[in-house]
Amino acid sequence: MSQFENVTVLKKANVYFDGGVTSRTVVFADGSKKTLGVMLPGQYRFTTDTIEIMEITAGELLVLLPGETEWKPYRGGMQFEVPANASFEMDVKTITDYVCSFVSASS
Amino acid sequence: MSQFENVTVLKKANVYFDGGVTSRTVVFADGSKKTLGVMLPGQYRFTTDTIEIMEITAGELLVLLPGETEWKPYRGGMQFEVPANASFEMDVKTITDYVCSFVSASS
Known about the structure:
2 copies of one chain form a homodimer. Chain A is an all-beta fold.
């Protein structure tokens, strides 16, 4: 799937880490939400509210998932899942394009 | 208007200048196209194919429009128009969030 159809896109960008990570919020007809983002090389720590599924569209990075001690490599075509109310770290090696899906507990 | 509804969003990011400028393409029901972008501080030169209307959502920058010799300041809430088949320069001072509309000659 190369595009999302019949969606609402918020005009305002989400900007984190001085622009090192930026994203746009996309809302689907069922009310679910994804962000389409870009990460520049750098190290970033994020905290989740819901379960997050991070699908890497392009790029290369290392990820330290909650409760793990080993950084694991990810690249375009791969994805990882982060539990709700947890924090995870990313060490982005090349410009990374991603889609993040927010999964509410009830779904 | 804080959001665009009933649109298609391309999943892949547009990346220019090593990620200094990134955007997502949004396609409307009538086939018209906009990009929602973020520019980090830096100097950028772009060339247009169609008329482009650049609406600055947030941020501060200087713009040198084609045929002009004076850089003019723009900030969130302002917009400028660039003719088709022309080039323009931007000197972005703070992280800038924008919506770029591509206006085909027939409209």
